[in-house]
């Protein structure tokens, strides 16, 4: 089986990708910043290294020692508002970090997979496919696009995966997501304001991990959009989450951008067209309601 090194393995995607790859008998080299927070650490196929991607030397040494077949670069600064407010740190992690990981991957591995975002688009057209023009409206989106450009210029086999509003069970200290945030807020009886003028194709983290495994397995190169199949507003997601968990929908206030502001601008209407992934990879994600059934009650 292929040996896969993952950066950002302590994150939401990282944890589920590690789990899936181990279930499929890949050899997994998980890397993350600080101590590992994964629950699969007993497997003989699993190794963990504490690696900060902006400290190039340790990653270089690990890649040289492990020579994995594939590197999945998922580590990033992902809090969009923090990226806007701390642009230098965001640039260090999201751009310089990617440059470092890519450079080392070019020397020691055969296939580089970069995890990118719908936020490379401006959110005017919506339902974006892999060849649509990019025009980010946030600093985070700008750094992810800069990294995409570096990866595209690489002479090694590469894949750029764009995904959108990832959700799933919060495990091992991963960041909150739309479903966990709505569920926890309503469970605690807190009122929330949720926008109805943004459009997304929310992505169940287990579907995303499956799509990436297909790419690894088939050595599929180029751009792929891996997202959910339903086009929803955050307000619709919140209502569906409340109904699914039997929580009080009256705590959810429908708002728009004139009421709900965040430090970083969000693209209003994204959503990713997954036709290419369906056709070429056999990627078939769950619907939002179906995925809610797989979440912890
Ligand atoms: N979540 C989403 O909705 C979407 C995510 N993406 C992309 O998917 C990828 C995975 O994101 P996701 O798992 O959801 O987000 P998380 O924030 O859960 O995971 C990102 C991980 O990167 C780690 N990290 C941050 N800085 C460094 C660093 N300097 N060195 C090493 N690791 C670092 C974080 O560590 P720590 O946990 O210790 O902070 C975290 O574990 C990212 O590239 C993101 O841009 C794309 C579209 C949507
Ligand atoms: C906190 C909050 C969010 N929302 C909405 C806005 C947004 O569409 C959705 C999720 O909000 P967040 O601020 O958590 O997520 P946000 O930072 O917008 O999510 C992004 O994360 C990065 C990593 C990506 O790459 C993108 O694909 C995207 O999913 O919920 C509200 O309506 N009210 C609120 O109080």
UniProtKB/TrEMBL annotation:
InterPro entries: dTDP_dehydrorham_reduct, NAD(P)-bd_dom_sf, RmlD-like-bd
Catalyzed reactions: dTDP-beta-L-rhamnose + NADP(+) = dTDP-4-dehydro-beta-L-rhamnose + NADPH + H(+)
Domain RmlD-like substrate binding, first and last residues per copy: 3-294
Pfam family, one: RmlD_sub_bind
Source organism, top-level taxon: Bacteria
Enzyme class: oxidoreductase
Family from the record: Belongs to the dTDP-4-dehydrorhamnose reductase family.
Stated role: Catalyzes the reduction of dTDP-6-deoxy-L-lyxo-4-hexulose to yield dTDP-L-rhamnose.
Official protein name in the record: dTDP-4-dehydrorhamnose reductase
Protein source organism: Pinibacter soli
């Amino acid at each position: 089986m292929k040996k896969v090194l993952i950066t950002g393995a302590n994150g939401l995607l990282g944890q589920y990708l590690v789990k899936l790859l181990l279930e499929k008998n890949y050899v997994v080299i998980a890397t993350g910043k600080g101590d590992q927070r994964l629950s699969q650490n007993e497997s003989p196929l699993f190794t963990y290294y504490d690696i900060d991607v902006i400290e190039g030397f340790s990653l270089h040494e690990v890649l040289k020692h492990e020579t994995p077949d594939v590197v999945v670069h998922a580590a990033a600064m992902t809090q969009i508002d923090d990226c806007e407010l701390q642009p230098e740190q965001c640039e260090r992690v999201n751009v310089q970090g990617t440059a470092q990981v890519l450079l080392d991957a070019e020397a020691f591995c055969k296939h580089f997979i970069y995890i990118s975002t719908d936020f490379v688009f401006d959110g005017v057209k919506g339902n974006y496919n892999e060849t649509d023009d990019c025009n980010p409206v946030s600093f985070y989106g700008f750094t992810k696009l800069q990294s995409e450009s570096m990866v595209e210029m690489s002479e090694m086999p590469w894949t750029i995966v764009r995904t959108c509003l990832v959700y799933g069970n919060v495990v091992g200290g991963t960041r909150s997501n739309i479903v966990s945030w709505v569920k926890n807020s309503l469970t605690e009886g807190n009122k929330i304001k949720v926008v109805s003028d943004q459009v997304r194709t929310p992505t169940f983290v287990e579907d995303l991990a499956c799509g990436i495994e297909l790419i690894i397995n088939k050595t599929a190169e180029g751009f792929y959009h891996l997202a959910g199949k339903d086009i929803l507003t955050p307000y619709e997601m919140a209502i569906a989450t409340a109904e699914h968990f039997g929580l009080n929908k009256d705590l959810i206030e429908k708002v728009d951008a004139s009421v709900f502001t965040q430090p970083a601008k969000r693209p209003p209407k994204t959503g990713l067209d997954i036709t290419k992934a369906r056709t070429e990879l056999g990627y078939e994600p769950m619907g939002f309601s179906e995925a809610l059934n797989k979440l912890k009650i």
